[in-house]
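Tokens for chain A. Residues wanted.
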């Protein structure tokens, strides 16, 4: 019997309470730099998340460490908020690989083409969160990508109605200012692409204001120096929304663009 099994065996009521939270937290780069109080809070929120939401594993089998790593990263955006911000869903479904979906598009001249789009994650209004484990397993680094944060920010966005890149504002924030700053950055990215220039951030962000918010939030938590340099006003709005300044946590060697 491993130490972990012994630990789990002592808490039969809810095995997730006994997950190796601290050990896993300290092994995930983007969770480095949180102070003692924040580490404790993150572990509490992660355990509460797993109590409140059901985690369905379809064709994948997560170890206790995997569950802890997923939950800890999932609650990073609400570290200084609370679980109420995740009230828009009840279930997290994990699948092995991204789903490739064939979609038929018709352009303005009536030309029909089939495109294959890869969906690593999906999030519908009030629906479950569907996440591909093959993608999740690569997350946690200062590399600008984080699937669970991306999808959960869509959920936060949808609290304000449709996914349109405008989540509910916190006290002291201004929706007008938020929209102005996000629209300017979204337009700048689209203009850059229209000119055939190398985009400053993942060009997927230019596809829709909701994707712009989700991609910028991924950067905010996993490559904050880049977001702050490219779209400083967007960085400041996200800082106000999430009540955090990840730039101060990002190590210098991970801060290069
Ligand atoms: Zn998205």
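Reply:
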């Amino acid at each position: 019997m491993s130490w972990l099994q012994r630990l789990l065996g002592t808490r039969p009521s809810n095995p997730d309470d006994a997950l190796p939270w601290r050990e896993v937290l300290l092994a995930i780069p983007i969770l480095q730099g949180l102070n003692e109080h924040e580490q404790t809070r993150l572990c509490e929120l992660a355990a509460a998340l797993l109590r409140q939401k059901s985690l369905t594993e379809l064709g994948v089998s997560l170890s206790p460490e995997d569950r802890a790593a997923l939950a800890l990263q999932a609650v990073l955006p609400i570290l200084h908020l609370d679980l109420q911000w995740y009230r828009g869903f009840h279930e997290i479904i994990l699948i092995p690989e991204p789903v490739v979906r064939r979609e038929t598009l018709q352009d303005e001249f009536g030309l029909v083409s089939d495109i294959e789009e890869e969906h690593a994650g999906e999030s519908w209004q009030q629906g479950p969160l569907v996440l591909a484990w093959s993608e999740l397993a690569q997350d946690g680094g200062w590399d600008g990508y984080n699937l669970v944060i991306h999808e959960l920010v869509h959920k936060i966005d949808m609290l304000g109605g449709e996914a349109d890149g405008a989540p509910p504002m916190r006290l002291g924030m201004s929706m007008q200012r938020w929209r102005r700053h996000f629209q300017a950055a979204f337009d700048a990215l689209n203009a850059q692409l229209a000119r055939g220039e190398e985009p400053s951030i993942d060009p997927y962000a230019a596809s829709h204001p909701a994707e712009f918010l989700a991609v910028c939030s991924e950067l905010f938590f996993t490559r904050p120096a880049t977001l702050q340099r490219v779209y400083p006003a967007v960085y400041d709005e996200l800082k106000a929304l999430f009540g955090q300044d990840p730039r101060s946590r990002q190590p210098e060697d991970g801060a290069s663009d």
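The mean pLDDT is 88. The beta strands are 54-57, 91-95, 99-106, 112-119, 121-123, 129-132.
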